[in-house]
Amino acid sequence: MTAIDKKALIEERVNMGLLGQWYPVAKSVEVKGTRPHGVKALGQKLVLWRDGSGKIRCIEDFCPHRGAPLSYGEVHEGNIGCRYHGVIVNGDGVVVRVPAMPECALEGRKALKSFEVTESNDAAFVYFPSAERPEAPELVMPKELTSDAWAGFLCTSLWETNYRYALDNLADPMHGCYLHSESFTLAYGSKQDLMKLDKTENGFRIERVGQTGENFDWTEFVVHAGDMFCFLDIPYPPAAGPGGFMRIVGFVLPVDATTCKVFFWRMREVSGLARDSWRFLYRARLEANHWHVLEQDRVMLEGMPDDARKREMLYQHDLGVSRIRQMLTRAAKSQIEVELAQAEAAE
């Protein structure tokens, strides 16, 4: 294996998404016990459903008989049945029954990869094992999603752009006062500034030097052994109801080389009657404004060519962009080196 080959493998891993990670792949309400739900993640087609106990199961979306999508099928007593010829597979990827041919040799064979799933805060997370971490570590969620002091809503959106550009966008607070200058809460603050980057215990924080609390002025990325998320604050005027600023907690799912799905929790620190007031106000008045901002990001990123990073000219404001790219590359390099070492040992 030459150095050039290794470099290409690392780039491909970064581009398609790191392994050894938990990723949100669907809203919990989308996964039912009555019918399967197909998703695509890290270039793989997967199918999710709930078994007889209500637990979400996940396997490859591929019937071992002829390759038909299992997501087109039905749920049978907690297992999944193919619509094409009725072959039934369980949540471990084992063929349970071939109705068209009793005692078929396929029965009892593990034919498909299965994936560990956990639910948290209205989302289904799937673990994609790596050679470094074949077993799933604990999914670590941000405090805003584990505390009763915060209330909010999960929103998701499919973007026709590589996930790396979504992460770059989150690591770039300076774009807020330009791209979102006509938005409900992001029309304020200076259009000139410098950025500073500080290491944190589990990641880094990128923020504007000259102002805080005027716009989308900072982002913090948090990295754990099996997941990565970010959070940022959107300043709110008193007219936006109780709870002060709105905190965005974001995860990004790499779907394939040119598509990603963002999972954003929109949170405020409220309780009691204030919590009910915030939830009502959000649904009645504020949600449309937030979607407008999110759509501005989506349209801008989808308009960029896929090879933009090969032609760009970064400057001081892009400290956060550079750091997140370095982190992805280092992690991919480590994964590829372990895989190559294992392959060499097997030979």
Overall pLDDT metric: 94
Strand order of the largest sheet: 12-18-17-16-15-14-13
| Beta-strand share of residues | 25-35%
Structural class: alpha+beta
Number of strands: 18
Tell me about this structure.
- By secondary structure, the protein is of the alpha+beta class.
- It has two domains: 31-128, Rieske Iron-sulfur Protein, CATH 2.102.10.10; 143-330, Naphthalene 1,2-dioxygenase Alpha Subunit, Chain A, domain 1, CATH 3.90.380.
- It has helices at 3-16, 163-170, 176-179, 272-303, 319-346; strands spanning 21-27, 37-41, 44-50, 56-60, 74-76, 79-81, 88-89, 95-97, 114-115, 117-120, 123-128, 151-159, 195-200, 203-208, 218-223, 228-234, 246-256, 259-268.
- The protein has a seven-stranded antiparallel β-sheet, with helices on one face. Strands 2-3-4-9 form a four-stranded antiparallel β-sheet, with no helix packed on it.
- The longest helix is centred in the C-terminal third of the chain and has 32 residues, at 272-303.
- It is globular.
- The relative contact order is 0.14.
Tags for this model:
18 strands; 7-stranded antiparallel β-sheet; alpha+beta; Rieske Iron-sulfur Protein; globular; 347 residues; single chain; Naphthalene 1,2-dioxygenase Alpha Subunit, Chain A, domain 1
